[in-house]
Amino acid sequence: MRDNPFSKQYMWGAVAALGPHAARDLAIYFATIAPKAANDGDRNLAARGRTIYLEGIPEANIVSCYACHGPNAEGVRDIPRLGGLAYFYLKGRLEQWGQGYHSGVESPMPLAASHLGPDEIEALASYLSFVK
Ligand code: HEC
Fold this sequence. Notes:
The chain is mainly α. It has a single domain, classed as Orthogonal Bundle (Cytochrome Bc1 Complex, Chain D, domain 2), CATH 1.10.760.10. It is 51% helix and 0% strand. The chain has seven helices and no strands. It has helices spanning 5-14, 20-32, 46-55, 66-69, 87-98, 109-113, 118-130. Helix 5 (87-98) packs antiparallel against helix 7. It is globular. The two termini are 28 Å apart. Bound molecules: heme C (HEC).
């Protein structure tokens, strides 16, 4: 369902032939791999990103992320882990919702990301890239 350019170019074709059993086996395999932080964000922005992650910015209508993604960005069931993902990946994802790309049916993310400005995106992506 993700319709951003990279998904269309690479992932749509890569998984087109995956059946439910192969998808389940891959998910089980990925879940066994210990997460490792990408550590590629801007360290100077990490503290600001952590504050936004935990508290949001109520006066700017920015919701806190931790209620859904977990106190340490570890993810909860089908809400994905964010801790340790690469800065560039996180930044791109957060920008894409603002550009109108979709990710799944009834995702809360287009709304959650819609009030984030470039500075907040930089700070959040930086912070999360260092989370173990
Ligand atoms: C109401 C619950 C909720 C809130 C609040 C929320 N998220 Fe999400 N988030 C989700 C769900 C569900 C998904 C998976 C569906 C999707 O990708 O759209 C997701 C996906 C994501 C992804 C994509 C991860 C990937 O692997 O591609 C990122 C990045 C993200 N959220 C960041 C944030 C940030 C930053 C905040 C705070 C500003 C936030 N989220 C607030 C529920 C939430």
